[in-house]
From TrEMBL:
Ranges for domain Aminodeoxyfutalosine deaminase/Imidazolonepropionase-like composite: 53-75
Top-rank lineage group of the source organism: Bacteria
UniProt gene name: mtaD
Listed name of the protein: 5-methylthioadenosine/S-adenosylhomocysteine deaminase
Organism: Woeseia oceani
Binding site for substrate: 125, 219, 249, 334
Binding site for Zn(2+): 96, 98, 246, 334
Co-factor: note: Binds 1 zinc ion per subunit.
Organism taxonomic ancestry: Bacteria, Pseudomonadati, Pseudomonadota, Gammaproteobacteria, Woeseiales
Length: 474
């Protein structure tokens, strides 16, 4: 970690710089926000941590990062998030989620992937998922993610317009996939229909909101055939957008690929030109040794989902090997029905511990490495490098404050160790996206949490009733 306490040239030419120490009368020139803390963990490539630092924000952009005394000498802000015992760091990036599945949390536990999907989740989705389900489920998820310090997520679900509308309102940043799946789904009759509707969704959202990036989300190699996968890639390239897909997730998928496509999963995808465009592969638990270099060469962003992989017993991904080979690897939660929460702090900790025990190597996947995967590395994996994921002038102001007041932070010898091995979502006290404060001291400024809770509870009662009737054979 590179510590910093002086002027390191980290300041951009600010739009509203005070020529001398600012006073309250400078307020008409005030910038939007200053976020200060005991430590500013920038997650830049040099690993800069600033003691007693601050971040200056205006118009959604980071203007300067440096010692608080320097920032305060240069800027006066309309709003200030301050505290001596807080860490300021980039917001977390959840690279793979199915947000609305918060409403299916706990309906089918302790099952392997294909049993879970085919016998519980797909039937429940066809029965219950509509635009209202997706609106309420996604709102619940955004509440949980903002609460836990996630500022960007990559979602794959149905009714993508509804997801985008929720994200637009709640203020988060998201890549939103429009699902393509070769079977009847809640919002399409099959793959062709999904591609057609997907293109319309992408046209509606491509230039509408800079926080929202529409992409395609073909489900997997066992729910789409080679022609459908290629057609989805062609549509994505035609629309100029990327793709997110479940990739080499389970032994079933690997065997399916060998049986139906004559080769292992990633090699097959590569052979049909599927990686000829920006691709995010979720899970990637079973790449062969020969396939890992393909992921690096084709610049496939890999999202590691340790909790979901453990819970549905898919296996342990070779994260260390992928990172060593130069693969871009980020972290994700998967949906709340296979995790069963959206807590990126838990993902970081479990990612690290899982590699250590799997390799019997306590040095595997250090705190610094997993924190990078959840921030700057995650941004690289999902194609948002240089836009979010680190605290650097010119990047969008997506940042959080973590309180180090709780007993588990006393004493703090190493701030990175504490963030990864100790902190949890309850320690996050402020979440800022694009310069807008979404949560401050447990108050949600863009979400009506009482209304969301009421609506989710009412909808869950209807789901519960239908499930009970189904189980009792009525
Ligand atoms: C195109 S994404 C929506 C689709 O994916 C299902 N899903 C949720 N989690 C997983 C997973 O880990 N592997 C494969 N498919 C998954 C979800 O229920 C939706 O039907
Ligand atoms: Zn998934």
């Amino acid at each position: 970690m590179a510590a910093c306490s002086g002027d390191d040239g980290n300041s951009a030419a600010p739009a509203r710089q005070a020529s001398s120490a600012p006073t309250a009368s400078d307020n008409e020139n005030a910038i939007d926000l200053i976020v200060a803390g005991k430590y500013v963990v920038t997650m830049d490539a040099a690993g800069t941590v600033i003691v007693d630092g601050a971040v200056a924000v205006d118009d959604g952009v980071i203007l300067a990062v440096g010692p608080a005394t320097d920032i305060d000498a240069q800027y006066v802000a309309k709003e200030r998030l301050d505290s001596e015992s807080r860490v300021v760091m980039p917001g977390l990036i959840n690279g793979h989620s199915h947000a609305a599945m918060t409403l299916l949390r706990g309906v089918a536990d302790d099952l392997a992937l294909m049993d879970w999907l085919n016998n519980y989740i797909f039937p429940a989705e066809v029965e219950f998922v509509d635009a209202e389900f997706v609106r309420i489920g996604t709102e619940l998820a955004c509440w949980e993610m903002i609460r836990g310090g996630t500022t960007t997520f990559v979602d794959m679900y149905y009714y993508s317009d509804t997801i985008a509308e929720v994200v637009e309102r709640c203020g988060m940043r998201a890549l939103i996939s429009t699902t393509v799946i070769g079977q009847r789904s809640p919002d399409a009759e099959g793959a062709g229909d999904g591609i057609e509707k997907g293109l319309a969704f992408i046209n509606r959202w491509k230039d509408r909101n800079s926080r929202i990036t529409p992409i395609f989300g073909p489900h997997a190699n066992y729910t789409l055939n080679a022609e459908q996968l290629q057609a989805t890639r062609a549509a994505a390239n035609q629309a100029g957008v990327g793709i997110s897909i479940h990739l080499s997730e389970s032994p079933y998928e690997l065997q399916y690929s060998k049986d139906n496509y004559g080769g292992t999963s990633i090699a097959f995808f590569d052979s049909i030109g599927f990686f000829d465009g920006p691709t995010i592969g979720a899970h990637v638990v079973w790449p062969t040794a020969d396939e890992i270099p393909i992921l690096a060469e084709r610049q496939v962003g890999v999202i590691h989902n340790p909790t979901s992989n453990m819970k549905i017993a898919s296996g342990i991904a070779p994260v260390t090997e992928m990172l060593n080979a130069g693969v871009r690897v980020g972290l994700g939660t998967d949906g709340a029905a296979s995790n069963n929460d959206l807590d990126m702090w838990e993902e970081m900790r479990l990612a690290s511990f899982l590699q250590k025990v799997d390799r019997m190597d306590p040095e595997a996947l250090s705190a610094e490495t997993v924190l990078t995967m959840a921030t700057r590395g995650g941004a690289e994996a999902i194609g948002l490098a240089g836009r979010t994921g680190e605290l650097r002038p010119g990047l969008r102001a997506d940042l959080i404050q973590v309180s180090f007041d709780d007993v588990h932070f006393v004493p703090t010898f190493d701030v990175i160790s504490h963030l990864v091995f100790v902190a949890d979502e309850q320690d996050v006290v402020a979440t800022v996206v694009d310069g807008a404060i979404l949560m401050r001291d447990g108050q949600f400024l863009t979400l009506d949490t009482a209304r969301i809770k009421r609506e989710a509870t009412a909808l869950a009662a209807r789901i519960q009733q239908a499930l009970s009737e189904r189980n009792s054979g009525d």
